[in-house]
Amino acid sequence: xxxxxxxxxxxxxxxxxxxxxxxxxxxxxxxxxxxxxxxxxxxxxxxxxxxxxxxxxxxxxxxxxxxxxxxxxxxxxxxxxxxxxxxxxxxxxxxxxxxxxxxxxxxxxxxxxxxxxxxxxxxxxxxxxxxxxxxxxxxxxxxxxxxxxxxxxxxxxxxxxxxxxxxxxxxxxxxxxxxxxxxxxxxxxxxxxxxxxxxxxxxxxxxxxxxxxxxxxxxxxxxxxxxxxxxxxxxxxxxxxxxxxxxxxxxxxxxxxxxxxxxxxxxxxxxxxxxxxxxxxxxxxxxxxxxxxxxxxxxxxxxxxxxxxxxxxxxxxxxxxxxxxxxxxxxxxxxxxxxxxxxxxxxxxxxxxxxxxxxxxxxxxxxxxxxxxxxxxxxxxxxxxxxxxxxxxxxxxxxxxxxxxxxxxxxxxxxxxxxxxxxxxxxxxxxxxxxxxxxxxxxxxxxxxxxxxxxxxxxxxxxxxxxxxxxxxxxxxxxxxxxxxxxxxxxxxxxxxxxxxxxxxxxxxxxxxxxxxxxxxxxxxxxxxxxxxxxxxxxxxxxxxxxxxxxxxxxxxxxxxxxxxxxxxxxxxxxxxxxxxxxxxxxxxxxxxxxxxxxxxxxxxxxxxxxxxxxxxxxxxxxxxxxxxxxxxxxxxxxxxxxxxxxxxxxxxxxxxxxxxxxxxxxxxxxxxxxxxxxxxxxxxxxxxxxxxxxxxxxxxxxxxxxxxxxxxxxxxxxxxxxxxxxxxxxxxxxxxxxxxxxxxxxxxxxxxxxxxxxxxxxxxxxxxxxxxxxxxxxxxxxxxxxxxxxxxxxxxxxxxxxxxxxxxxxxxxxxxxxxxxxxxxxxxxxxxxxxxxxxxxxxxxxxxxxxxxxxxxxxxxxxxxxxxxxxxxxxxxxxxxxxxxxxxxxxxxxxxxxxxxxxxxxxxxxxxxxxxxxxxxxxxxxxxxxxxxxxxxxxxxxxxxxxxxxxxxxxxxxxxxxxxxxxxxxxxxxxxxxxxxxxxxxxxxxxxxxxxxxxxxxxxxxxxxxxxxxxxxxxxxxxxxxxxxxxxxxxxxxxxxxxxxxxxxxxxxxxxxxxxxxxxxxxxxxxxxxxxxxxxxxxxxxxxxxxxxxxxxxxxxxxxxxxxxxxxxxxxxxxxxxxxxxxxxxxxxxxxxxxxxxxxxxxxxxxxxxxxxxxxxxxxxxxxxxxxxxxxxxxxxxxxxxxxx
Length: 1190
Prior knowledge:
The chain is α/β, with parallel strands linked by helices. Among the domains are: 1-140 and 1110-1190, P-loop containing nucleotide triphosphate hydrolases (Rossmann fold), CATH 3.40.50; 210-285 and 896-977, Helix Hairpins; 544-650, Alpha-Beta Plaits, CATH 3.30.70. The protein is 70% helix and 9% strand. A six-stranded antiparallel sheet has the order 2-1-4-5-6-7. Helix 5 packs antiparallel against helix 15, helix 6 (287-524) packs across helix 14 (792-890) and helix 17 (984-1045) packs across helix 18. It is flat and about 215 Å long.
């Protein structure tokens, strides 16, 4: 096993910037110290070094929070932890007794990992550690609060925890990968099916196109056949036309000869006429006329000759130029044709030799192939006989082996199933007994709870009844009290009103007394200018009396005087007689006082001074007192106009100051009514006081009742909660009993089914054993027969050799046949080209060149002669013209005769010209027909060439209506050609081959898909088996640990076990942690007390760890909720575990720390964690154990 030897930190959390070393010597390490001293930081350091990246696991918000913050001093820029592991067991794949893992993190959050001082990647490090069963995940590390959290997990979360620990994820990963493969296979299969469907559609389409293509080829053949017939018909027509043209040429030749005779005759006539003309001239004129006539005749001849020679020369020059340009081209064509003929002859000769040689070789190969086929047939017959015999034996042997394998598998499965069934039956019987005992306990508890429920229900009914009575009494008193409070309130208001009126009356009376006293004093002292109070000057009568009196209230204590001199005298009297505050109004100072302008409105009656009858002497006084006040019709109007800045008074005496404040409303009652009997008023006040005292007593009673009601309601609520808890507990118990009864019923049924299956399996096992023995005997017999037949191998070897040679010869034959076919085709094409094209072209070119050369030679000779004769001829014509002019002057007298002769001569010449024209036309026709024959001959050769290309000759027989049939075929052909796929046949073959390949691929994909499904089923089966195996082991270890941890001195112990909610569907249901403590009923871990939860969860954690061991475990205060007895037992269990693993435990309890090998004390000093090492001696341990016992 791998153990932690040392932890070194620098700048990590609260350990400060200086290096801190903790040497973990021993298997059981204890860490203790005050709260907040940094004990858990040691565990965080180990987690950090192992590669943990979750800040929450190391109790920080982010990884940079692991760096020492300075504790008020200088913070660190990085955190570094080095973990030294003991690797003497070589569980870590490094050949070293010590392995150091270092991790450093900087403030940026980047981490660096070192393995034995060398930089490494986290992935590589994690892989090495995982092989040694070291990980920061799982239950290697149990932090604070995890135990309670585990106990409070719901069943599904507990199942997921067990799955994670067991490693079910690998099965899920395999299944997920397989599902992905299945999905990919489904998609590939889907694509393949789609492609097959598409290819099938394409095959159907291409089949139609292929048929169209074949039809087009057939039509092309038929058209070629019909065209060949037309060519034969045209050849026949051309031959007939050439024959007719030849006959016409003979006719034209005869006609030309006849015209030549006529021309000769005409020339003779002209000569005779010329002679007659000459003779006439000779007779008439004599020698001069003869001379003139001869000169004229000669002149005409020479002129005609000169003109003819010039025209001929010009024509010959043009023709010579054309011939000279054509001859090089024709010579080049002839040379090329000769070269082609020579090359073609050589090629034909070579091909003929090659073809003869290839045919001879082919004959030899065919003979050789016949020999090989005979040998092959003989060997095949022999091999088939041997193979048939071996195949039968091999098939039987293979079937025997397959059957044996199946029986072995079945036997193994049967044996395993038999063991499993026996174990299940035994386990089922045990569970049934345990469950039945549990059902009995639960039933007893249910009866107790139902009795308690009945008592609580009766008590709740009594409390509810009492509470209702108190509530009714309280409501009655509250109603009476509300009435008394209303009476008291109204009485108090009336008393207050009365007292305020009395006080006002007293004040008014006091003011009136002051004015009366002052008036008497003024009269006694004869003060001049003293006029009296407002009431002495103004008299208020009529409809607006109340309004006027209300307006004068502010001046009720005012004294009116005439001038300032009188004012000082009155002031002295007031002070002397101590009459109080008095307002003095001198008339001299209010002269010119004006009343306010009343706005025009129906609610404003006018200024109040307008409604007072007063002497002119006191008009200014009236304006001063009443002029700033408007008289309005109602209090509402008064309030509205006061908001606009006016002082208003209503007819009823309601006064509103500017801004809307009410100064006074109504009027003072007569003073006589206010001063009633004081004794009656005192009695009323006494009654009000008594009423107030009575109300207070009632309130005290209500307070008492409220307190009682609250107490009753609290009691009632507590009883309701208690009853609800009892109901809930009762329902839970009933549900639990029903569930366990169902479990028993289901277990009975399952057990019966298992017994039946066990019986069937036992019978099947006996049958399989007998069948295995028979199969083994049969296999021995078949193998002996199979071993005796070994001659087939040599036959197959000979056959393979023969097949190889035969395949080689077959390849040679195919290759040679292709060459022969190719050479024959080439030879036929070259012969046809030589005979029908090249030789004909050579003859034509040779003849054409010879004709051109002869013609060129004749024309050049003629031109040479012309060049030598033309100058002399021109000179002679000139001389004759001069002589003729001279003589013509002398022979004018003979002109009529000569003219007549000339006229006859012209007629003859004209007739001669007509004959010459006919000769030319005949020659032209002859030449045209000759050219036409040449063209027809070329066409004839062309048609023969086309016939040869089409593969036909002139032996075809023409029949009528070929053109009509050909037109119909051409229409169909052209219609098909525009929409036919000329590659359809080739594409059809290719796509049909592809279709076969796709079908084969589809079958492969189907097999792959089936194998993937089988694999998924096997993964599910393996996953279920792995989970159940681990579940049973954990359950067994849990029962053992819980029994050990809860055993009392009397020997009674509790029981804990794991329950699957649904055994048929494990991975969608949950796992319940059931715990039954001594003298208590079994409950799920979420329904027990805090300490009990800790015990149950600890047992589960330790059970899981026992099933999936690790080299070391780290516990952080897992004993926090345990009492001394349970923590002692836990310490013993953990101590036993140190035989196999190293335990590092943070604890505050002596019961744990007294059993450690080494103890580390952690404390805080100036914000930095300090560590002390303490190794207890044997006496310390004995002392600690003794203290525990006491």
